[in-house]
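ugh ok fine here u go
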Amino acid sequence: VQLQASGGGLVQAGGSLRLSCAASGNTLSILNMGWYRQAPGKQRELVAAITRAGSTNYADSVKGRFTISRDKAMDTVYLQMNSLKPEETGVYYCNAVVYGMAPYWGQGTQVTVSS
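structure:
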């Protein structure tokens, strides 16, 4: 499975961005996909995840502002981010979990929220 993330950029606080993660290869093997954020000097942390069945999971800090969605084939996952905060600046990585194997990671996309 290969993952290609896009949609990052520079936005002012309170603004919105939509990230996309396109999966290719054996996408039928994907169980769930997620978005992680890594801020400078910090560990990578889960932002949101979605299963093939459509169940979602969010970090408490983004609930009500971020929405993760996917197409039916689980080929593309989106992260709609609204009301962005400066502390949400970082590199956003998409992730795919496949049964019986280590997770796959995309290359990351930079999100910068200016105050």
